């Protein structure tokens, strides 16, 4: 199963690298966004409990999250292309486990998201947020786990979609609010109570906690921090739910009505 | 190799369309090593049967065994025995020929050495040797089809399913494709089930199945099917075919069948065609645009069998 998943993931990655506009677009957009917004807000920013953190620094993991989120989710859009182009049918008739089909797509999406996010990580030391090797390792773990969850969620919704514009529309309606209310744009500590409640159930905010942690705390501290551990747990559950849900969708075969 | 029993498939009703029976309790057995063509008019249920056979959809009722495995209970085992060539392309156009083949080998779990061997085999019968590093979307239609077939054969399936694999090919490429397929089928004693509308492709098959509206009308060897029609027939074209047909029946007391502008006198005994043709010419010369004696081909059998209930076809000669 792993071999099949790897072969399918490699295909995703090769395809992605052969489309330079996809590579450039997904890397350039969040960087520009971050530079413009970040420099605009910088002076007036003061995060509670985070003295000496500039807005550029605060916003940095949020942008990283946004990149990862969008790259992961929209990598699943290729299912719709695969179906249209006929490639999917040859995968479906192969004697491969249906989970391998899901994992192939998800791992492909994760690797694509990783390239972009890792390039972006190079900026961290220049922002005065140097990362030690163990922290970098934890950061990568955070990337992979949250990216897999979102890629699997994209897979789950894209599976039954017939057009990529439909998928785009639905995902934007879902994602933008989730991202904005995740604490990526502004701290939610002094937000009204309802927003707080949204944050607790919002998987994007848990992913953000997971990714932001390694920038501010040492790995040992993180493993003692219940807020971070909770985020880790939620993200793992999120991964499992959408991987299994997607597999169930792939497994379902179109069925004739009772005669 | 394939045992289909009482297979029925009903497409569920939707808001706009009523439920539709695409396959109606079909029973069919394809023996190991046979080359079998599945034919039938548009909408007769061929593609539906094909999708069920390759395990993409589940029927309303009935069973299918592939190489002894129940297709619906053990889809994995049945899938491992078969190769599938779809009507539409099923390769990744953005990858090269070699990358596509490699990916397919990975999906079926071939080891690197087996893959190398099978690749060499494929290069021997295809024209792809110099094109392995080219992207599939730069290939001609004929070469792209070769990739599909090479891919399906890579795993040495015991059963090969093909859905109208030659649509869109010019006659020469189509010939190449079919010849290669026949050659490999004989060498490997592989079972082949292929849907096709092209009767020249069916002439060298072991069995031809003809479907209409979800029912199996005939399943026999090409020779036997041809034998169902008389040995030869007289075929004539006329712009006033409707009127002329009535007059042939009334004046000459001959059985006729009409398809549009064409009138056929199918049940002529051997050697009787020429006198009939002469009589027709003598009587109706001015109404006839062209006339000929034809040896029945599979296509004629197809038209005969599938035309039986068609509204455009009259059967006056037989009914009255
Ligand atoms: N997805 C579907 N939903 C509802 N009805 C369908 C569906 N697919 C096919 N049908 C109907 O089932 C019947 C059989 O269709 P099918 O595609 O199997 O025919 P076919 O023999 O492959 O025809 P063709 O020669 O045109 O390819 C047709 O009446 C068709 O309208
Ligand atoms: Mg069809």
Describe the structure.
- The complex is a heterodimer of chains A (259) and B (320).
- By secondary structure, chain A is an all-alpha fold.
- Chain A contains twelve helices and one strand; from the N terminus they run ααααααααααααβ.
- Helix content of chain A is 75%, strand content 1%.
- In chain B, α3 (97-107) runs parallel beside α5 (141-153) and α5 (141-153) runs parallel beside α6 (171-188).
- Chain B has a six-stranded mixed β-sheet with strand order 7-8-9-3-10-11, sandwiched between helices. A five-stranded antiparallel β-sheet of chain B has the order 15-12-14-13-16, covered by helices on one side.
- The longest helix of chain B is centred in the middle third of the chain and has 18 residues, at 171-188.
- Chain B is globular, with a radius of gyration of 23 Å.
- Chains A and B meet through α1, α5 and β1 of A and β1, β4, α2 and α3 of B.
- Adenosine-5'-triphosphate binds at residues 11, 20, 22, 40, 42-48 of chain B.
Which key phrases capture this entry?
heterodimer, A: about 260 residues, mainly alpha, 12 helices, B: about 325 residues, alpha/beta, six-stranded mixed beta sheet, five-stranded antiparallel beta sheet, 11 helices, about 35% helix, disordered C terminus, binds adenosine-5'-triphosphate, binds magnesium ion
* Number of DSSP strand runs of chain A: 1
- Indicate the overall shape of chain A: globular
Q: What helical percentage do the residues of chain A reach?
A: over 70%
Which regions of chain A have little confidence, pLDDT < 50, spanning 5+ residues? none
Amount of beta strand of chain B: 25-35%
Total DSSP helices of chain B: 11
Element string of chain B (H = helix, E = strand): EEEHEEEHEHHHEHEEEHEHEEHEHEH
N-to-C CA distance of chain B: 44 Å
Secondary structure class of chain B reads: alpha/beta
Given as residue ranges, the uncertain stretches of chain B (5+ residues, pLDDT < 50) are 310-320
Radius of gyration of chain B: 23 Å
């Amino acid at each position: 199963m792993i071999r099949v998943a790897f072969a399918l993931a490699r295909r995703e990655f090769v395809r992605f690298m052969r489309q330079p506009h996809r590579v450039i677009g997904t890397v350039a957009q969040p960087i520009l966004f971050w530079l413009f917004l970040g420099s605009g807000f910088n002076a007036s920013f003061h995060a509670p409990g985070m003295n000496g953190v500039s807005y550029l620094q605060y916003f940095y993991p949020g942008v990283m999250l946004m990149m990862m989120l969008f790259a992961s989710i929209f990598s699943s859009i290729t299912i719709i292309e695969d179906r249209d182009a006929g490639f999917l049918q040859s995968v479906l008739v192969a004697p491969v486990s249906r989970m391998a089909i899901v994992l192939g797509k998800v791992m492909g999406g994760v690797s694509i998201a990783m390239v972009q996010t890792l390039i972006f990580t190079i900026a961290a030391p220049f922002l005065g947020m140097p990362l030690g090797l163990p922290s970098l390792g934890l950061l990568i773990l955070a990337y992979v786990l949250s990216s897999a969850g979102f890629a699997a969620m994209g897979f789950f919704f894209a599976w039954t979609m017939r057009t990529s514009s439909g998928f785009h529309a639905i995902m934007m309606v879902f994602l933008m609010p989730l991202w904005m209310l995740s604490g990526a744009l502004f701290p939610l500590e002094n937000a009204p109570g309802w927003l707080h409640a949204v944050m607790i159930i919002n998987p994007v905010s848990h992913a953000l906690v997971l990714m932001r942690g390694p920038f501010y705390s040492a790995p040992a501290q993180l493993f003692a921090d219940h807020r971070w551990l909770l985020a880790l747990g939620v993200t793992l559950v999120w991964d499992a739910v959408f991987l299994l849900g997607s597999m169930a969708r792939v497994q379902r075969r179109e069925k004739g009505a009772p005669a | 190799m394939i045992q289909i029993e009482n297979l029925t498939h009903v497409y569920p009703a939707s808001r706009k369309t009523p439920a539709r029976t695409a396959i109606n309790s079909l029973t069919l057995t394809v023996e190991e090593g046979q080359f079998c063509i599945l034919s039938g008019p548009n909408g007769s249920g061929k593609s539906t049967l094909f999708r069920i056979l390759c395990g993409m959809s589940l029927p309303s009722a009935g069973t299918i065994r592939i190489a002894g495995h129940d297709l619906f209970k053990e889809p994995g085992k049945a899938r491992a025995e078969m190769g599938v060539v779809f009507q539409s392309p099923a390769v990744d156009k953005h990858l090269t020929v070699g990358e596509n083949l490699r990916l397919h080998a990975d999906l079926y779990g071939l080891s690197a050495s087996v893959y190398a061997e099978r690749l060499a085999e494929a290069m021997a019968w295809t024209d792809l040797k110099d094109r392995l590093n080219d992207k599939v979307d730069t290939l001609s239609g004929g070469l792209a089809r070769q990739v599909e077939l090479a891919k399906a054969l890579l795993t040495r399936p015991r059963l090969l399913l093909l859905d109208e694999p030659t649509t869109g090919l010019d006659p020469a490429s189509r010939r190449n494709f079919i010849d290669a397929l026949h050659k490999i089928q004989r060498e490997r004693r592989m079972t082949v089930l292929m849907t096709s509308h092209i009767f020249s492709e069916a002439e060298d098959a072991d069995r031809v199945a003809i479907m209409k509206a979800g029912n199996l009308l005939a399943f026999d060897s090409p020779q036997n099917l041809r034998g169902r029609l008389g040995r030869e027939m007289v075929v004539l074209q006329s712009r006033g075919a409707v009127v002329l047909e009535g007059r042939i029946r009334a004046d000459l007391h001959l059985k006729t069948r009409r398809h549009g502008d064409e009138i056929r006198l199918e049940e002529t005994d051997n050697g009787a065609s020429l006198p009939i043709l002469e009589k027709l010419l003598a009587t109706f010369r001015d109404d006839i645009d062209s006339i000929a004696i034809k040896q029945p081909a599979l296509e004629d059998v197809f038209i005969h069998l599938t035309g039986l209930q068609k509204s455009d076809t009259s059967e006056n000669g037989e009914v009255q």
